[in-house]
C-alpha cells in the first residue's frame, strides 16, 4: 500500500516532533518515498540531519534561500505528493492553514497541493480544546482534511489531558486509510469482516471455545481499510489492538456474532467470515459458578431445572457432563435470505447489490474434500481453507498456507505466506467478484 507512494511529511515546532522521526523511518521502511518539510521552529527540537538520515532524502525548510530553487521545489513537492501529512500539527500551523497563510515552505506546499491533507494535532491540552483551535480544525475538516485526534494522557508539561501525539502505528494506519479512501480499489465499498473465536459460556467462569487468535481476520480488515473500504470488524475476544479506522464490534458468543452480522450486512458489498464460530453451545449455562465436589458426576441441569448443577446418576467419575446444542449457521442463513430475495421487475427500483460471501474452513484432515463440501452447502462465492495442524498455518501463526475454492469449482493452491499476503490475495479475488 505504501510502496512507491510519495509522502510529504510536514513537521512543526512542538516537543512531539521527535516522534515524527520514527514515523519517517517506518514510512521509508514500508517502501514510501518520504520528503520532509520542517518549519523553522521544528529545527529547534530536531536537526534536519536526523530526518534526512531516516528518509534517505534531503530535508526542506527555507522558502527564502538565496538561489531561488525553493520556489520551484515547493511546486514540485505539491504536484508530486500522494499525501501531505503534518505530524505534529501545532496550533500555529493549524491556524495558518485554516486562513490560507503561506509564510513558510510547509504552508506554501499545503496551499499548492491537490493531495489529501492529514493533520495530527499535538499541543498543550487547553490549547487544543480552545475554541479558536477547534474552529480552525473544523474549517479544515470541512475542506476535506483528515484529522487524527490526539491521544489523552500525560503531556510534556506534566498535565494530563488531550494533546499527545498518537503512536507511530496509529499514525501509519491513518496515512494508509487516507490514501486508500482517495485511490484504493475498494474505495466506496462497505465490507463486513468477522474475526477471532467465540466463547460459549458454561457458567460465569468457564466457556467452550477454540484456539483462534484473530490474526487472519484482523489482517483481512486492515487490508480492506488500506484499499479504501468502509470496514466493520465483528470480533470475538482476542488480544490484538483494533485496526485504526475500522468500525469495531466486540462480541463473545456465536449468537451475538450472528446478530451483529445481520444488523450490519444489509448494505454491505462483501462479507468475509474468517471468525472461528463455535458450532455448539451449552444448552443451559449455569448463572453461578459450578463447584467441584469430589466423587460426584455433575451435569448442567435440563430444562425445568435451569440454573443449578445437580448430581447425575453416575457418581464414579468425579467429572461433569454438558449437553450441547447447535449454534446458528450465519453463512447458511445469509445464503437462504439471499436466495429468497426476489429479482427486480421491469420499471421497479433495482434491488440492493448482491452480497459477495467468503467463508473459511479450518480443517485437520481431508482439507480439500471437506472444503469443497462446505463451499457447496453454504453456497459461497469463495472459500478459504487451511490445515490448522500445520505449524506454519495453524491458530496463532503469523503465516498461512491456504487453498481458494471458487463457486465455479476451480481451486487455487497458494504458497505459505504472511497473513497480510493472504488477506491481499482474498481481496484481489473479491474485487473481481464485485466487478
UniProtKB/TrEMBL annotation:
Cofactor note: Binds 1 FMN per subunit.
Coiled coil residues, start to end: none
Pathway note: Cofactor biosynthesis; coenzyme A biosynthesis; CoA from (R)-pantothenate: step 2/5; Cofactor biosynthesis; coenzyme A biosynthesis; CoA from (R)-pantothenate: step 3/5
UniProt keyword terms in alphabetical order: Decarboxylase, Flavoprotein, FMN, Ligase, Lyase, Magnesium, Metal-binding, Multifunctional enzyme
Pfam families: DFP, Flavoprotein
Region span, Phosphopantothenoylcysteine decarboxylase: 1-190
Listed PROSITE patterns: PROKAR_LIPOPROTEIN
Residues annotated for CTP binding in this entry: 279, 289, 328-331, 360, 374, 378
Cofactors, names only: FMN; Mg(2+)
A GO BP annotation: coenzyme A biosynthetic process
EC number of the protein: 4.1.1.36, 6.3.2.5
Region (Disordered) location: 300-319
Reactions accelerated catalytically: (R)-4'-phosphopantothenate + L-cysteine + CTP = N-[(R)-4-phosphopantothenoyl]-L-cysteine + CMP + diphosphate + H(+); N-[(R)-4-phosphopantothenoyl]-L-cysteine + H(+) = (R)-4'-phosphopantetheine + CO2
Domain Flavoprotein: 6-140
GO cellular component: phosphopantothenoylcysteine decarboxylase complex
Function: Catalyzes two steps in the biosynthesis of coenzyme A. In the first step cysteine is conjugated to 4'-phosphopantothenate to form 4-phosphopantothenoylcysteine, in the latter compound is decarboxylated to form 4'-phosphopantotheine. Catalyzes two sequential steps in the biosynthesis of coenzyme A. In the first step cysteine is conjugated to 4'-phosphopantothenate to form 4-phosphopantothenoylcysteine. In the second step the latter compound is decarboxylated to form 4'-phosphopantotheine.
PANTHER family in UniProt: HOMO-OLIGOMERIC FLAVIN CONTAINING CYS DECARBOXYLASE FAMILY, PHOSPHOPANTOTHENOYLCYSTEINE DECARBOXYLASE
Family according to the record: In the N-terminal section; belongs to the HFCD (homo-oligomeric flavin containing Cys decarboxylase) superfamily. In the C-terminal section; belongs to the PPC synthetase family.
Name of the featured protein: Coenzyme A biosynthesis bifunctional protein CoaBC
Organism: Ktedonobacter racemifer DSM 44963
Lineage of the organism: Bacteria, Bacillati, Chloroflexota, Ktedonobacteria, Ktedonobacterales
Amino acid at each position: 500500500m505504501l510502496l512507491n507512494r510519495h509522502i510529504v511529511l510536514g513537521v512543526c515546532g512542538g516537543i512531539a516532533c521527535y516522534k515524527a522521526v520514527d514515523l519517517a523511518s517506518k514510512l521509508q521502511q514500508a517502501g514510501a518515498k518520504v520528503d520532509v518539510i520542517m518549519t523553522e521552529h521544528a529545527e529547534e527540537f530536531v536537526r534536519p540531519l536526523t530526518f534526512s538520515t531516516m528518509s534517505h532524502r534531503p530535508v526542506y525548510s527555507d522558502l527564502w534561500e538565496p538561489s531561488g530553487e525553493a520556489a520551484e521545489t515547493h511546486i514540485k513537492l505539491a504536484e508530486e505528493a500522494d499525501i501531505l501529512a503534518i505530524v505534529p500539527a501545532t496550533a500555529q500551523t493549524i491556524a495558518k492553514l485554516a486562513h490560507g497563510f503561506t509564510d513558510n515552505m510547509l504552508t506554501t506546499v499545503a496551499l499548492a497541493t491537490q493531495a489529501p491533507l492529514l493533520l495530527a494535532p499535538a499541543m498543550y491540552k487547553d490549547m487544543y480544546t480552545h475554541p479558536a483551535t477547534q474552529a480552525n480544525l473544523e474549517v479544515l475538516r470541512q475542506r476535506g482534511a483528515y484529522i487524527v485526534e490526539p491521544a489523552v494522557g500525560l503531556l510534556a508539561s506534566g498535565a494530563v489531558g488531550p494533546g499527545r501525539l498518537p503512536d507511530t502505528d496509529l499514525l501509519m494506519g491513518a496515512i494508509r486509510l487516507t490514501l486508500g479512501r482517495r485511490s484504493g480499489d475498494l474505495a466506496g465499498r462497505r465490507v463486513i469482516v468477522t474475526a477471532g473465536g467465540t466463547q460459549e459460556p458454561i457458567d460465569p467462569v468457564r466457556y467452550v471455545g477454540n484456539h483462534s487468535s484473530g490474526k487472519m481476520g484482523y489482517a483481512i480488515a486492515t487490508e480492506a481499510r488500506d484499499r479504501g473500504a468502509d470496514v466493520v470488524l465483528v470480533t470475538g475476544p482476542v488480544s490484538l489492538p483494533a485496526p485504526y479506522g475500522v468500525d469495531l464490534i466486540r462480541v463473545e458468543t456465536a449468537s451475538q456474532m450472528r446478530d451483529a452480522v445481520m444488523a450490519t450486512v444489509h448494505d454491505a458489498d462483501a462479507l468475509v467470515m474468517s471468525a472461528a464460530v463455535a458450532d455448539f453451545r451449552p444448552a443451559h449455562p449455569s448463572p453461578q459458578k459450578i463447584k467441584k465436589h469430589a466423587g460426584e458426576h455433575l451435569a448442567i441441569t435440563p430444562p425445568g431445572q435451569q440454573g443449578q448443577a445437580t448430581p447425575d446418576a453416575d457418581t464414579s467419575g468425579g467429572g461433569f457432563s454438558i449437553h450441547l446444542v447447535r449454534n446458528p449457521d450465519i453463512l447458511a442463513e445469509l445464503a437462504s435470505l439471499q436466495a429468497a430475495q426476489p429479482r427486480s421487475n421491469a420499471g421497479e427500483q433495482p434491488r440492493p447489490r448482491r452480497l459477495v460471501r467468503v467463508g473459511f474452513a479450518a480443517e485437520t484432515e481431508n482439507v480439500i474434500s471437506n472444503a469443497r463440501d462446505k463451499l457447496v452447502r453454504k453456497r459461497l462465492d469463495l472459500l478459504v481453507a487451511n490445515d490448522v495442524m500445520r505449524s506454519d498455518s495453524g491458530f496463532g501463526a503469523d503465516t498461512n498456507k491456504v487453498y481458494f475454492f471458487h463457486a465455479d469449482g476451480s481451486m487455487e493452491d497458494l504458497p505459505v505466506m504472511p497473513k497480510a499476503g493472504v488477506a491481499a490475495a482474498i481481496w484481489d479475488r473479491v474485487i473481481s467478484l464485485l466487478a
